[in-house]
Amino acid sequence: MWTPLSRDEQLMQQRHRLQPIQSNQLREDEARQYQYPPKPLPRQPRRVEVQYVDMQSHLSAIQSLEEQLDELHGFLARKGYNTRGTQDFSTGAAFDLPVDASHKATY
Question: I need a labelling partner for 22 at 20 to 30 A (CA). Which of 31, 40, 66, 98 fits?
Answer without folding.
Answer: 40
